[in-house]
Amino acid sequence: MFDLIERLAAKPSSIADINRLVGAEAERVGVTRPSYERVRELVHEARWLAKDHPSVARTILDVATRTRSHAAYIELAARGPRPRLRDRGK
Q1: What tens digit of pLDDT does each residue of 14-50 get?
Q2: What is the 3-state secondary structure (H, E, C) of 18-54?
Q3: b/e code 75-90 from CB counts within 10 Å (16+ = b)
Q4: pTM, two decimal places
């Protein structure tokens, strides 16, 4: 469910819509439906993680349009992979 929540949180959807889709998927695969509160927490966390770690494409575009300096490439190489919801707590 973490990957689904991350994908849905990347879109401009409301948390209520995301909760309905996650609940439907949980029922489809036969697992317990997560509570609205838990989905809300995970959506906020996924959006926070994505905000602090722009994609490679976003970084290249920002450098090309001179929104960020070339030092962004060094930051990109040094930071490692973007943290994911499913990896937290490890």
Answers
A1: 999 999 999 999 999 999 999 999 999 999 999 988 8
A2: HHHHHHHHHHHHCCCCCCHHHHHHHHHHHHHHHHHCC
A3: ebeeeeeebebeeeee
A4: 0.68
